[in-house]
Write a structure and sequence with these properties.
The protein is mainly α. The chain contains twelve helices and no strands. It has one domain. Helix 1 packs parallel to helix 4, helix 1 runs antiparallel to helix 10 and helix 5 runs parallel beside helix 12. The longest helix has about 45 residues. It is elongated. The two termini are about 20 Å apart. About 55% of the residues are buried.
């Protein structure tokens, strides 16, 4: 029982870190354009994250059943702890360096690394692909839910950002700059709110999935047999074959509140990288970047795809900058970011893998 509660605590710590790590990405543009002060932007993001986290559970269901095969290895509490610690350590390192890496991919890497170590390097533990023969876009597994979106969603964000910005330049070329700025000062508050909402719909759900997995493992192991009646909500039933796991309301509410609390802390190091170092932004640029990124995340959330808020807003900002002029982007900063993107899954996975091996040596994991 104590181990289950430890998993839930560490999962909520991850959610809190996710709040100040990834939310910095979602509000970087509205802060850098000076439409909102940092405090106002953080409050807006915290509120919209909270609302967004309560909307849907498709991404959470992907985390619980679409990445690691439970028939090969049971994701017990100690294995989940290693997965979470791998993601948390990498998140803190990249936050300290001011690199906007992906919490989503850090968690996915942690799950895959810990699962692989627990399965004694049996690669079949990773669900690579489960195609849906009726609808190709409903396929599951790492290929369809992680690898393809990891490349396609930033590309789509870049293209949308470029198109929206180019269309705005063409449509508003005869308008007075003061009038344009006045309009987009207000419009960007709406786009920033949409970005925060979409961040909540996608990112908060990943931790929901981890907590649901921990409770299912505890239920299977019989840890909740003698629970008092008032704690019976912790018992989680295994879904029937082919059906995704349902996420309890209390899990959704808890994760939403913790992410909102983490958001309130802010992440100014990452805001500085995205909003100032990469490209100079005006309100119209911030609106175009947020609108395109929020659109991509909305589509992904509908299909239960755990995409990276970081990758999408960064790529959208690049697209907006290129629409202005190609050399408006500081490509040396982009290069550092791309390396962080590429390394996130293998490094977080490697840390989790090493932690499982360490626990096996100590004897904590059989």
């Amino acid at each position: 029982m104590a181990l289950i509660l430890t998993v839930i605590l560490i999962a909520l710590i991850f959610e809190y870190i996710n709040g100040f790590h990834d939310t910095a990405n979602s509000i970087a543009t509205v802060v850098s354009t000076k439409v909102l002060t940092p405090r106002q932007a953080v409050l807006l993001a915290a509120f919209t994250n909270l609302i967004g986290a309560m909307w849907g559970t498709a991404v959470a269901k992907t985390i619980t059943s679409g990445l690691v095969d439970s028939k090969v290895v049971h994701m017990t509490s100690d294995i989940l702890i290693c997965a979470l610690l791998g993601a948390i350590i990498w998140n803190l390192v990249t936050w300290w360096l001011g690199l906007p890496s992906s919490s989503s991919h850090a968690l996915i890497g942690g799950l895959c690394g810990s699962g692989l170590a627990a399965a004694h390097n049996n690669w079949h533990v990773l669900i690579w692909s489960q195609p849906n023969h009726e609808h190709w876009y409903k396929g599951s597994g790492l290929l369809w839910k992680v690898i393809v979106p990891m490349f396609f969603s930033p590309f789509l964000g870049f293209v949308l950002g470029f198109i929206i910005m180019a269309a705005l330049y063409i449509g508003l070329r005869n308008q007075r700059p003061s009038k344009v700025n006045a309009f987009f000062n207000k419009a960007q508050m709406a786009s920033a709110g949409a970005m925060g909402f979409m961040h909540g719909t996608n990112d908060a759900q990943k931790t929901m999935g981890i907590i649901a997995l921990a409770l299912l493992a505890g239920t299977k192991a019989g840890h909740f047999v003698n629970l008092p009646e008032w704690l019976s909500f912790l018992k989680t039933s295994e879904p029937s074959d082919g059906k995704p796991m349902e996420i309890a309301l209390w899990i959704k509410v808890t994760c939403a509140l913790v992410m909102a609390a983490g958001t309130a802390v802010g992440g100014w190091r990452i805001i500085k990288t995205l909003g100032h170092k990469m490209v100079k932004l005006h309100p119209i640029n911030g609106f175009a970047a947020e609108a395109s990124s929020a659109t991509v995340i909305f589509i992904a959330s509908l299909f239960g795809i755990p995409v990276s808020t970081t990758h999408n807003i960064s790529a959208s900002i690049m697209g907006v900058g290129c629409a202005k002029r190609f050399n408006a982007i500081k490509w040396t900063v982009v290069e550092r970011m791309v390396w962080a993107w590429v390394l996130t899954i293998p490094i977080a996975g490697g840390i989790a893998y090493g932690l499982v091996l360490l626990m096996q040596i100590i004897g904590w994991i059989p």
